[in-house]
């Protein structure tokens, strides 16, 4: 049967066929094992297989040649049982594993099962020939038997793992089939807008979707696909950029000053820190059932200067920790995350070590047991160091023979220039499979034993021996290194004035350090490398120690495996990360609304544990306030969707839809119903959306450094969350009755943690790792232009490195790449460059400040969409209908100018970091808050002033007279 994995998936298996396979494969395996166990004589068959020499074989046989011949005869029954069982279940796995790589793995598992059976048959046949003459005098057949035995066990190892995964997966799909089908059918056919198909892979075929997408032309299909957004174009939209508390505070001042335009805007898009305040506006507008609506905030007065909610935010901008108690809570949360991560990894490593010991003890590929005596107390003074575990000759023959075969196949492929089409492709796949198999055989025969030997040698060399105290000390040191590294990663770029933010500890310092920013440095990277390598080294040593000590023979050896199983089945990995802590702390500062106590108005925090703020309805529009759209980033690997250097795509969260054009869209209300019984529902709230959008500290950061991401994953310093993939839901909705396509996972299990460590984020996954929207576009401008706003206002408080506004430039480039939108900044764009303003007098005392002054804070750009956009009449916001491909962009950039208020210039002279305090600085004091809010207010006022009479390229006002 031929199957092209890059075209169509195999025919789905029927439910009856699946049940028959699940039962039949077990019956075949059990029958083979039972018949062999009952009728085969009790002989050490494995010892004969690995003897390798005539002398050793004669010692094993010991006059029982007939018993060995009988056992070999019954071994053919066992071979038939396990080969048929594994091939059968892998054939089912090929249909159950719906993604291309896993389907290939199932095919490989079936092939390895056949190979294992063939190796076993050849091995037994050769042994039967050898046993005709006893005692044995010729050694070379035994070396071939040794090679065949190694090849058999190695093939069985991988085939068995694949088969077990296929069997367990198929069983789960069969058991939960009806419940999943019932939930998916309840979504309805209009619940999902699928993503566009990729060049390869299994994706839901896009159904006809009638969206006003402003087509860019028949030849610009890529742009047309990225225009897919389930919302109408807008006359006016506003975006507030990322940048932590810095950006949030600037956004607060800007939105206060832009109140008139804010209430005329159709969309308010936020990224990261800008979302802190945008989400706060939205939640402050939600009314309480037991409160008088007249006393609640309205769009016209929410967060007005002097309001209760503004005062609450001002008092909580140091939201991570403020004072010794909150500092201890924050450090404790970080420590808890490190300990939980270390515990999970330690369980995994211990279970792997035990399984390794079991495997090598049963197959005798390498004698790990002889290393045990070097781990005994006092072994170092008495014993010479452990000798290296050299592979046996049979193992070397098998590995070398397979490597030679792989080389010959590749040579044949190069010489077969006449081969075309399928023949050449088949030869190439066979050659690649031979290389992969040679690598796997080398790993089993030489790699793993070498790692175990190295671990034992290092432990022997250090004189370490296992006691309760030494094990506890080693664990504490390993956890301490991870904790120190995490603190370095989290706090290194914090302003040194952090010493003054630790309330009760402030008295320990006599001098407040201000205006100095600690940059990234080689020292930080070196320390993180040391911490990471030390932790990885400790884990390798633990694995080798467990494999070599013979602990696998103890009754307690199942404890780590049972513990790991409990973690896999019952623990949600996102809930174990720092994301819940981050989400709660953000909510304590920005989830607030007006209330009453004893007849007096007060600001009342949301009850975090009782009021979950689900996106629908808490993010629903409160007219005339604009629709809130929170911009995050979905991390993807490979080149199916993203180009090299950009491993993230847009993923937005709103009350109507969740998703993005490249991953698909799903209706928010329907999605919330789908995950009602899952911990995932806690991450589909306004509070969670804001936290995810601000998850700059994550195990996947778009185009950021990979090493840093690995360390953050290992230390559990993960602020992102795994959210449903709308593209996967679309596929399942199109194949409701296909039980082989799974539903969404109820719990984000250990495999998702492993994906974060390994950096595996395929676009076909059921869940997507969503992190800071700045990993895609930190300004929010690309998403605002995707919504085809005729007037786009961008509040840019990103942490650019002068002289140019690099994040703005990147957003303009990305908008053209993905959407075909051209943004042409007007000549005053260079007015944002620090040092472009006329110097203040007197020059000498203000030299440093003058170098930071820009000529202007607000610039204008002309937007050209690739096709005409129809803007409908909006009576409520006083806009007339219009069709045009032109628009205007106003960018208000957080910078310094010579005409800023006196108090802002004074603060800028005192604080050299202003207005570019590091995004990692989440501990704003009142002075910082007031300065950034005032700067934001200036930005809003100047943007407001530009709007009146502003003209587009056609010399027409952006807003017709009268609105």
What would your notes on this structure say?
The chain is α/β, with parallel strands linked by helices and 963 residues long. Among the domains are: 15-175; 324-576, no CATH class. The strands form three sheets. Strands 1, 2, 3, 6, 7, 8, 9, 10, 11, 12, 13, 15 and 16 form a 13-stranded mixed beta sheet that branches. Strands 4-5 form a two-stranded antiparallel ribbon. A two-stranded parallel sheet has the order 14-17. A hairpin with a 2-residue loop joins strand 4 and strand 5 (600-605). Helix 9 (244-257) crosses helix 11. It is elongated.
- Compute the CA-based radius of gyration: 33 Å
Instruction: Detail the poorly predicted runs.
Output: 1-7, 493-519
Could you state the oligomeric state of the chains shown? single chain
Overall mean pLDDT: 85
Shape: elongated
- Span of the ends, CA to CA: 68 Å
Strand content: 5-15%
Give the number of DSSP strands. 17
> Biggest β-sheet: count, sense, barrel?
13 strands, mixed
| Helix segment tally | 33
Helix and strand composition category: alpha/beta
Helix content bin: 40-55%
């Amino acid at each position: 049967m031929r199957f092209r994995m890059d075209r169509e998936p195999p025919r789905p298996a029927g439910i009856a066929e699946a049940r028959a396979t699940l039962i039949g494969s077990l019956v075949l395996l059990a029958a083979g094992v039972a018949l062999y166990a009952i009728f085969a004589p009790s002989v050490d068959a494995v010892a004969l297989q690995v003897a390798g020499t005539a002398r050793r074989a004669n010692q094993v046989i010991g006059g029982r040649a007939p018993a060995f011949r009988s056992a070999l005869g019954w071994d053919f029954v066992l071979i038939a049982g396990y080969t048929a069982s594994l091939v059968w279940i892998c054939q089912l796995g090929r249909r159950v594993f719906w993604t291309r790589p896993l389907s290939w793995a199932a095919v490989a598992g079936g092939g390895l099962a056949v190979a294992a059976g063939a190796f076993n048959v050849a091995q037994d046949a050769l042994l039967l020939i050898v046993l005709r003459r006893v005692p044995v005098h010729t050694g070379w057949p035994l070396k071939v038997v040794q090679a065949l035995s190694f090849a058999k066990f190695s093939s069985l190892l991988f085939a068995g793992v694949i088969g077990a995964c296929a069997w367990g997966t198929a069983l789960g799909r069969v058991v939960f089939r009806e419940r999943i089908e019932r939930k998916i059918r309840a979504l309805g056919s209009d619940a999902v807008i699928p993503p566009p198909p990729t060049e390869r892979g299994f994706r839901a075929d896009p159904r006809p979707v009638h969206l006003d997408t402003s087509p860019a032309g028949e030849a610009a299909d890529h742009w047309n696909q990225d225009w897919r957004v389930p919302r109408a174009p807008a006359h006016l939209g506003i975006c507030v950029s990322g940048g932590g508390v810095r950006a949030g505070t600037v956004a607060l001042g800007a939105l206060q000053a832009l109140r008139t335009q804010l209430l005329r805007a159709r969309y308010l898009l936020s990224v990261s820190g800008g979302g802190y305040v945008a989400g706060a506006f939205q939640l402050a507008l939600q009314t309480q059932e037991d409160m008088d609506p007249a006393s609640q905030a309205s769009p016209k007065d929410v967060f007005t200067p002097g309001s209760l909610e503004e005062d609450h935010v001002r008092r909580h901008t140091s939201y991570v920790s403020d004072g010794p108690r909150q500092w201890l809570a924050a450090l404790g949360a970080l420590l808890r995350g490190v300990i939980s991560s270390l515990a999970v990894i330690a369980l995994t490593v211990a279970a792997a070590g035990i399984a390794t010991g079991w495997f090598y003890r049963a197959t005798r590929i390498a004698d790990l047991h002889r290393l045990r005596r070097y781990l005994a107390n006092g072994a170092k003074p008495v014993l010479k160091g452990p000798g290296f575990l050299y592979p046996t000759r049979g193992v070397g023959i098998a590995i070398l023979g397979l490597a030679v075969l792989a080389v010959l196949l590749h040579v044949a492929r190069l010489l077969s220039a006449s081969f075309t089409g399928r023949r050449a492709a088949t030869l190439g796949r066979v050659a690649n499979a031979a290389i992969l198999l040679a690598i796997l055989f080398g790993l089993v025969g030489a790699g793993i034993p070498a790692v175990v030997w190295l671990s034992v040698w290092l432990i022997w060399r250090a004189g370490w021996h296992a006691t309760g105290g030494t094990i506890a000390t080693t664990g504490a040191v390993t956890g301490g290194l991870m904790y120190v590294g995490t603190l370095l990663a989290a706090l290194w770029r914090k302003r040194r004035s952090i010493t003054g933010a630790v309330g009760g500890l402030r008295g320990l310092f006599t001098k407040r350090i201000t205006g100095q920013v600690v940059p990234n440095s080689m020292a930080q990277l070196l320390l993180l490398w040391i911490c990471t390598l030390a932790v990885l080294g400790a884990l390798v040593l633990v694995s080798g120690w467990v494999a070599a000590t013979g602990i696998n023979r103890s009754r307690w050896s199942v404890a780590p495996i049972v513990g790991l199983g409990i973690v896999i089945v019952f623990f949600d990995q996102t809930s174990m990360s720092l994301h819940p802590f981050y989400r709660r702390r953000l909510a304590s500062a920005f989830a607030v609304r007006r209330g009453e106590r004893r007849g007096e108005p007060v600001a009342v925090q949301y009850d975090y544990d009782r009021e979950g703020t689900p996106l629908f309805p808490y993010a629903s529009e409160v007219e005339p306030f604009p629709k809130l759209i929170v911009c995050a980033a979905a991390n993807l690997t490979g080149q199916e969707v993203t180009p090299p250097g950009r491993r993230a795509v847009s993923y937005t969260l709103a009350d109507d839809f969740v998703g993005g054009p490249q991953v698909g869209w799903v209706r928010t209300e329907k999605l919330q119903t789908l995950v009602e019984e899952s911990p995932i529902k806690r991450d589909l709230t306004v509070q969670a959306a804001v936290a995810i959008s601000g998850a700059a500290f994550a195990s996947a950061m778009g185009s950021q450094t990979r090493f840093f991401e690995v360390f953050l994953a290992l230390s559990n310093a993960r602020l992102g969350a795994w959210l449903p993939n709308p593209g996967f839901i679309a596929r399942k909705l199109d194949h409701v009755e296909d039980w082989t396509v799974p539903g969404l996972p109820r719990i984000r299990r250990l495999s998702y943690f492993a994906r974060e460590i390994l950096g595996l984020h395929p676009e076909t996954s059921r869940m997507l790792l969503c992190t800071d929207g700045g990993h895609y576009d930190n300004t929010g401008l690309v998403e605002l232009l995707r919504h085809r706003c005729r007037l786009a206002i961008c509040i840019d408080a990103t942490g650019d490195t002068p002289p140019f506004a690099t994040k703005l430039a990147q957003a303009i480039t990305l908008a053209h790449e993905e959407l075909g939108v051209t943004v042409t900044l007007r000549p005053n764009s260079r007015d944002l460059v620090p040092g472009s303003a006329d110097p203040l007098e007197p020059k000498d005392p203000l030299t440093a400040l003058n170098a930071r002054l820009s000529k202007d804070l607000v610039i204008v750009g002309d937007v050209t969409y690739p096709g005409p956009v129809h803007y409908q009449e909006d009576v409520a916001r006083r806009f007339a209908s219009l069709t045009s491909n032109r628009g205007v962009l106003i960018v208000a950039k957080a910078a310094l100018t010579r005409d800023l208020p006196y108090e802002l210039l004074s603060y800028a002279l005192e604080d050299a970091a202003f207005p570019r305090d590091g995004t990692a600085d989440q501990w704003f004091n009142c002075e910082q808050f007031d300065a950034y809010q005032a700067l934001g207010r200036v930005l809003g006022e100047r943007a407001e002033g530009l709007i009146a009479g502003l003209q587009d390229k056609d010399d027409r006002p952006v807003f017709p007279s009268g609105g």
